[in-house]
Amino acid sequence: MQLDLSADQVLIRDAVRDLCAREFGPQASSWDREAVVPRQAVARLAEQGFLGMAIPEDWGGVGYDSRTLLIVLEEIARVSAALAIMIAVHNSVGALPVFRFGTDEQRRRFLPRLVSRELAAFSLSEPGAGSDAGAIEATATRTEQHYVLRGSKNWVTNGEQAGVYLIFARTDKAVGSGGLTAFILERGTPGLVVGKAEDKMGLRGSDTVALSLEEVKVPLDQRLGAEGEGFKIAMSMLDAGRIGVAAQALGVMGAAFEESVRYAQQRRAFGQPIARQQAVQFKLAEMERRIQASRLLIWRAAWLKDTGQPYTREASMAKLYASEAATWVTHQAVQVHGGYGYVKEFAVERYYRDARVMEIYEGTSEIQRLVIARSLLKDGVKV
Ligand SMILES: Cc1cc2nc3c(=O)[nH]c(=O)nc-3n(C[C@H](O)[C@H](O)[C@H](O)COP(=O)(O)OP(=O)(O)OC[C@H]3O[C@@H](n4cnc5c(N)ncnc54)[C@H](O)[C@@H]3O)c2cc1C
């Protein structure tokens, strides 16, 4: 596994870092306050090709390997975790499944929009089915020309802005997770009703909505993959999505760490900078240790993916470790800032709120531990 970035990766990282710092950094806290990331921000990223990172050039994307995609997500998350999750969901679990599992006709129809301007959403969760995705109750009943979708979905990231939705519904009531099927729906399809955005603790600029499926007629040619393949499609996409969440966690904790180091060197107490206190130094050392360990796990999972090897377990390890590291690091960043860490004037307050959800979505920490344990008991230990 190569640890150095290639010359191209360095160029891309520096370009996205510069763009984010110049154009998004000054606005990120107002996006949080106003609970909206403006469409222009997504449009700016689209201009750079960042809506087509996982799509090959032949299909209009920029065809990045996983590590390059993760570097971009990390850089965006450094300034705005809300914008990063919008782009992560779009690339990893929105556009990519259309390419990976779609017919050529579906690719021709949907990919040009997705790589150039429209966000995609991924709608698996329901009010009664989160960790237990096999318990999905939304149904898709086949008629001669259509499937008719009925049910309720929730927690749909990008749901308010998306042009294209991947929706998972049950085509076979009798079979648990094997009875799920994926569909591609367009915004504005009659019966696809977008609910109001959740009032969240963090990631406030990214919209998260409920969807109501009220007798939605979906043409047969908008089924993604075969009937009964939905669960498999969702799980394989979540492997990629989980490394994306880990990269997002890396960006947020990296920003929190840098601000903590800067603050600790400036803030004086008892006649000297607080960075001279060993208790503060230990916090900073521990923050950096967890950040670097996270990066290694993330890059390892990406390397396995890019070299065509199984990576489910490593993706779960990267997601679990990095998300827990991010909640710890951002917690300590608030502590290092003292009272100033608790007010909105300092960004660490936002990072702390933003990091918390990373242990929850795309599979909770408990579910990641289950995935890792099941794999090590089935496939053996790797040490
Ligand atoms: C901001 C945000 C954005 C989201 N975006 C999306 C999206 O775009 N698309 C989408 O489909 N979903 C999305 N989700 C949903 C998210 O993936 C779920 O919230 C998550 O999978 C957990 O499901 P749940 O909320 O139903 O919790 P539950 O599954 O009810 O879990 C509750 C608690 O029980 C624990 N638990 C459950 N089962 C087990 C078990 N077997 N062993 C041990 N512990 C267990 C969990 O770990 C958790 O601590 C989003 C959620 C949030 C908060």
TrEMBL record:
Residues 7-118 form the Acyl-CoA dehydrogenase/oxidase N-terminal domain. Its cofactor is FAD. Pfam families: Acyl-CoA_dh_1 (PF00441), Acyl-CoA_dh_M (PF02770), Acyl-CoA_dh_N (PF02771). Transmembrane segments: none annotated. PROSITE patterns: ACYL_COA_DH_2. Residues 228-377 form the Acyl-CoA dehydrogenase/oxidase C-terminal domain. Gene3D superfamilies: Acyl-CoA dehydrogenase/oxidase, N-terminal domain, Butyryl-CoA Dehydrogenase, subunit A, domain 2, Butyryl-CoA Dehydrogenase, subunit A, domain 3. It comes from the Bacteria. InterPro entries: Acyl-CoA_DH_CS (IPR006089), Acyl-CoA_Oxase/DH_mid-dom (IPR006091), Acyl-CoA_Oxase/DH_mid-dom_sf (IPR046373), AcylCo_DH-like_C (IPR036250), AcylCo_DH/oxidase_C (IPR009075), AcylCoA_DH/ox_N (IPR013786), AcylCoA_DH/ox_N_sf (IPR037069), AcylCoA_DH/oxidase_NM_dom_sf (IPR009100). This is Acyl-CoA dehydrogenase. It comes from Eiseniibacteriota bacterium.
